[in-house]
Amino acid sequence: MHFAAEILPFILALVAGGMVAGLLAGMFGIGGGAILVPIFFHVFGLLGIAEDVRMQLALGTSLAIIVPTSIRSFMAHRQRGSVDTALLRGWIVAVPLGTLIATVIAAKASSVELRLIFAVIALALAFRMIFNRASWKLGDDLPGNPLKFMVGTGIGVLSGLMGIGGGVLNNTFMTLYGRSIHQAVATSSGVGVLISLPGLAGYVWGGWGVPGLPPFSTGYINWLAVLLLIPITLYMAPIGARLAHAMSKRQLEAGFGIFLIVISLQFFLTVIL
């Protein structure tokens, strides 16, 4: 009874986080990781998991949940015909390669380093979204290779280090090259698929045999959290996709930016305090 009373608040926190993550996955094409990582970090901490593995566990578990969420979100957006499938085909090697590189880095980095990486990237992207101007363009169409391949690899690296589906980075890339935010969001759900599958495998490998991990974990993936949140995020993702298509470009960008600032500041506080 005492154990149930202790564990119930954490389960409720995970459920609430899963609902928000699923909604954001569909709305922004981000896979929900940007909200799941800080939630997991704190919940795992409250459960007494050592700090030196907590951030890696949060990143790996987030990417595992993004697998079905991003697939579901991608299918919802593809039905609306707004996904750039040519870009996704060109990144079939680049994005997974970058993600696997990230899992190797994460296995060797400290918890503080990973939190700072997450916070700095999120804050930079937030200001770009909030203060975005139509004049902020690098071109009228996406660049060709090798630049496009390098960008895809970079998105994989940064996303793997943040435990996110890559939407936040792909949205920035595509809109800087003249694509609409709605097409960027739709395509980002596909990028999430290319990141989450190799990311899951990489974090399993990177955490294999590491001491201090909680029960029901394989490497840096906690399957109890995965099984609890997957149904919730899957249910909420199509709702988010419908909301995205009902909002204006400016509303999407401002909402996305404010959300990222809150998450970034929260992670800076965990490092300082």
What's this, in brief?
The protein is 77% helix and 1% strand. The chain has helices at residues 2-28, 33-46, 51-78, 85-90, 94-108, 111-130, 147-162, 167-176, 181-206, 223-246, 249-272, and strands at 217-218, 221-222.
Task: Tell me what the structure shows.
- This protein is 77% helix and 1% strand.
- It has a two-stranded antiparallel sheet with strand order 1-2.
- Helix 1 packs across helix 9 and helix 3 packs across helix 10.
- The protein is globular and about 55 Å long.
Largest sheet: 2 strands, antiparallel
What percentage of amino acids are in beta strands?
Answer: under 5%
Rg estimate, integer Å: 17 Å
SS content category? mainly alpha
Transmembrane segments: 7-24, 30-50, 57-75, 87-107, 114-131, 151-173, 185-208, 220-240, 252-272
Protein name: Probable membrane transporter protein
Pfam families: TauE
Subcellular location: Cell membrane; Membrane
Summary tags:
mainly alpha; globular; 11 helices; two-stranded antiparallel ribbon; 273 residues; Probable membrane transporter protein; single chain; cell membrane
Task: Describe the secondary structure blueprint for this structure.
Elements: H1 2-28, H2 33-46, H3 51-78, H4 85-90, H5 94-108, H6 111-130, H7 147-162, H8 167-176, H9 181-206, E1 217-218, E2 221-222, H10 223-246, H11 249-272
Antiparallel strand pairs: 1-2
InterPro entries: TM_pro_TauE-like
Main location: membrane
Keywords: Cell membrane, Membrane, Transmembrane, Transmembrane helix
